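Feature request, filed as a ticket because there's no other form

It would be nice if the structure record came with a short human-readable summary line next to the tokens. Right now we just get the raw output. Example of a typical job, pasted below so the devs can see what we mean:
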Amino acid sequence: LGVGLALSGRDGAADGAPVAQPTPAEEVLGDARLDPVVQDGTLARAEMRREPDGELRLEVRVPAVPDAEDGYLEVWMRDEAASRMISLGTVSTQDAVLTVPEGVRLGEYPVVDVSHEHFDGDPTHSGTSLWVGEMVRRS
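Raw output as currently delivered:
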């Protein structure tokens, strides 16, 4: 039957309709174990993916988020010395997916940093990191 369908040019759908082709899967580029900066803290995790549309996305899982009146969490990619940082956005739930801007070179910004920020109008890092870890590339 399969040979007959192949020779007839049909794609194997019972009603003659085209069979959907599989879409390209996302590619996991790396992951990070985010160690708590405070000693009694719980680990967080991050995973870098290339989506089928080519976009890089960072999925972050944190054990808790602050109450709204206490501020918010912000996710950064930074160099190892913390001298260059890129804000990816805020985290308002324990799981967040953030888009990495096009042109960011992961080798130059290998560290994921989750900071506690306050509603003070200052767009820079507060200096209060809650979780930090280096992205480990998958082969």
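Something like this underneath would help us a lot:
Strands lie at 27-36, 44-50, 56-61, 72-78, 85-91, 95-100, 111-117, 129-134, 136-137.
Residues 2-8 form the longest helix (7 residues).
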